[in-house]
Amino acid sequence: MSEATATPTPTPEPFRQNLSALRNAVFELHKILIESERATYEQTVGTIPSPGYFLQLLTTDPWFAWLHPLSQMVVTMDVALDSKKDPLTAAAAEVLIQQTRQLLTPSETGEGFARHYYDALQRDPEVLFAHATAVRLARPVKPAS
Question: Which structural domain, as residue segments, surrounds residue 102?
């Protein structure tokens, strides 16, 4: 087996930097969505009595379940960026960027994440601003010539 097939080509720095910046933007969007959903939950259901109870709601309550795909995307990016065993390749970085673009596509008539995301974008300007930042960073990266 040749060395070229045994070891994947490391990610060119622009791809790694873009994925890292996108990860940070998606993480910030995630935090803002959590706070937005918390506010909506408390207006509808009532005050959340403690941080521990809120964490339990985030992980087990159907109200917050729609956020799980975004949580998973952040974790997936973290693993890809931090893996020493499997170095991130440009192709793998582009796949993650493409998956993020698809995930961050709201839908007024859709269901699941896309529908809830659409609703959050309509009701909360902070979500809209964080979305704009993440979508801008999720554009395809053109490799340096």
Answer: 11-44+57-137
